[in-house]
Amino acid sequence: MAVSTNITKPSQSIFKSFVEKRLVKYANSDFTTKQKAHIFYYLCIAGIVSILLLIVTSVIVQMKSAHQQIHLPVVITEVAALLLFFICLVLLRRGHFNVSTHIFLITANVSAWIVMYISKGDSIARIDTVLLILATVNAIPLLIIKYKWNIIGYVGVNITLFVVFITLKQQELSLTSSEIISVGTDAAIAFLFTGIVGFQILKVNRKSIEKVENDYLERLRAEEKLTESELKYRMLFDNAQIGIYQTTPDGKILSSNPALIKMLGYDSLSELNQRNLEKENVFLNTTRRNFKALIEEKGYVNDYESGWLTKDGNHLIVSENARVVKDANGETIFYEGFIENITERKKAEKALKESEEKYRTLIESMNEVVMMVDNNDCVLYVNNRFSDLLGYSKEEIIGKIGYQVLLPPEDQYKIQNE
Q1: Euclidean distance between CA atoms 130 and 116, whole angstroms
Q2: Could you give the percent of the chain with pLDDT greater than 70?
Q3: Please, are residues 274 and 264 in contact by the beta-carbon 8 Å criterion?
């Protein structure tokens, strides 16, 4: 069963693709026209095949009849119908849907009536032709897109032609006047019923198709928005200057943006994907187990700093913000997050700290008193020599107004009024 399905679906897809290429003119048409164009394409193909079979069977039947000769008017009519069906197919492919459908309907009806009038078959053969005409009328709602009163027109013409036919062929068909009235009435009722049903089908179908078309347009708009959203996300993902990733709990790397791939020294995502974070310890000062324990406990990590190894064995210091993504059952699907390379910043901070330590050591070892104050005369720093000479501890002076602690009241007054 599975094998059959796999064979059928590709063949259906190939055939659908073949038809769509033939109907490329309708690619930008509304949903209704597009669907009816497809239906009419199949109908034209079916009509051409049917006419070919009809010609063959007609010739065989006529050769086996009592006359044993081909009745050329009938065959010529059938061949003309075949050519017109081909013309309909060509017009349809060129985008002339309305013109081609009406030519098709008129050709089918006219051909059938010509055969009715010129055929020398018996009444049973004539009844078969009437059934063919009814079938053609039944197809009208599938082909008419607008001007639904065309259905009434087609039905009215067929009723008229049928009345004229049985009147002219009364003697040939051996019909009495009462039989003519009965047959004419029955046929008129059949055609009217077909027309009314077709009219209502078109009316109902139009409402249904409008709803389907609205749903279809909404879905297209939603897909366009989704595509736009995905494109924006993809552009953001690809062009971000920080690393973005998704990894599974078992260490598999699902996705990584170019910035992270470059950060880790790899040439492509496929190369990076060969790494498993569970099997290879890429952390320098911690482990993945610690990371997983923290993120599973909180559901996220913020500014999580750790050391990483690159492909070439270089050391990176990164800051990570990540979250857990879970399914409907609460099971972890993957972790996703952002990675910022802070190696240079950490080096700068370390250098600054070392510089400050050197500066502080130099200041502390000086024999001179050093005091730093801000614009409001608040003491920010004093060295050890200050405490040694003046007797104030750092806690007693730092954070206070220096002159208010160190100077007598009269000098404080002078400073305040300068």
Answers
A1: 8
A2: 72
A3: no
